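Thread: quick sanity check before group meeting

JM: Hey all, I'm pulling together slides for Thursday and realized we never actually wrote out the predicted structure for the chain we discussed last week. Dropping the sequence here so it's in one place. If anyone has concerns about the input, flag it before I start.
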Amino acid sequence: MTGYATAGWTEMFLCAGGAAAALSGLIFVGLSVNIRTVLEMERREGRNSMTGRALEALVALLIVLLVSIVALTPALSRGVLAAFILVNAAGSAISPCRAVYGSRGVSAPSAVKLMRLIPAGALTVALLAAGASLAAGHGGGLYWLPAAFVLAVTVAAVNAWVILVEVLR
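JM (edit): ok, ran it. Output follows.
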């Protein structure tokens, strides 16, 4: 097993993909339970903070699911997988950037912002490291993906907690 070929990684991709799909479904259900409260809160605030968090959680989990599906494709070249991971890294950066842009002028505690942005930023960095090192053939390659997947689940869990529990406080 090596970090530069998908042989030997099947169980990890199957586990990660299945878990991400299940957790994505739970976020949809959780958001639907509080949808009135979430939409009312956003209407009062004049911004999409909670639906943005839901989207961020879903994107993080969908990245895990999509990378797992593509990585399980037989005879997929290393370059194609590296490019796909890098595209997903770029996609993972969109939501944290929107969160920073959307929070301008809002006086939220900096610790709250950091708890949201650090895991999301680390996810992007881990995906970039995985894609770039896989393409280069050195620097870790696929060994960065478990860290990225753990960060994605962390991003999703934190945002899901806010959507499900904190929104009702």
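AS: nice. Residues 49 and 150 are 23 Å apart (CA to CA). The helical segments are 10-33, 35-45, 49-71, 78-102, 110-136, 145-164.
JM: adding both to the slides.
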